What we know:
Elements (H helix, E strand, L loop, with lengths): L1 H37 L7 H20 L4 H7 L3 H11 L2 H23 L3 H29 L17 H13 L8 E9 L2 H27 L5 E6 L2 E8 L5 H12 L7 E9 L8 H21 L5 E5 L21
Amino acid sequence: MAADATSTQSSDCARVGQCARSHSVVIALSCCALATLWLRAHWPTRAQSLLCVLVASAAIGVSILIQTNPVVGLTGAANYAVLTAFVVSFHTPRLLTAVWSVGAVTLGVLIVHVAADDLALAVCAAGIIVLLNVFVAFACRAMLVLIQPDTHHGDIEQLTGLLHRDAFYQAVATLLASRSRSDDRYLVVVAVNIDSFSLLLGLSGASGGNRARVSVGQALREVVRHNAIVAHVSDHDFLVADTFTTADASPLVERIRGAISVTPQRLTASIGVVCTPLPPLAAEPPDDVLDKLIAIANQAIEQARMAGGNQVRYVLRPTLDEDPDDDEPQPDNGRIA
């Protein structure tokens, strides 16, 4: 009888061990499959990210339940905090509820097993894991609130994360209407045009063009001041507006050129810069002022492109009440970089 019981127990343990190994293999293969979604050249879609969360939630639950020692399983339950941080940062509270529901069921099973030997340990461990997940959720939410830009999501161009044209006009109008610092006396508008963009599209396709736009957008954000206004207004055109104490915008322009030149694609750009005193701008509507300044900057870009590209044309103190064609960059007004 004893031998039969021992044999039966050994057989059960073998089956449990084989089942645990099978689950471990499935979990490992699932993790590898999910990893391929994040190793590609582009981000996963929202549906793919949702799938990753659901699979990861189930994988964590199964992996800690198959542990022979339930205390080890309780330790592994802390992994739900990582999943909590991801869901709070990129998904909705409804998905977080689903993840926490799976975690609660898993934690409940572990508590029952641990409580059979040590009730105090089970209660304390469960409390720590719950508090950890709640703390991570609130911390991530607070971080998102702190770093949330003042710009409304509808004003953001989705590819580059910069303002679109209408939002750029609104931001510049606000800047002109609310200027109160006596040390800022000039408005500078910088128009940036990626050189040979059509050739880039022909060689690398739409994905290559998108990567170039994103790279230039990131480069512009990194070199401008925090209160500068940056926009992506067309396929290969960007705009920057800022106020300066002097009419010399060359330090900003050189930073822009340098940042674009070190992008992964080693891009170059033709740049038109318009610098005009702030006080006279109050006499005209902001949109009309900006239309004229951008037209002058675009004309400067055309001259830089005709000269071979990868150059800068400056226009200082243009006359806004005349046609933009009358404000061509002159040797004494600007310089070629």
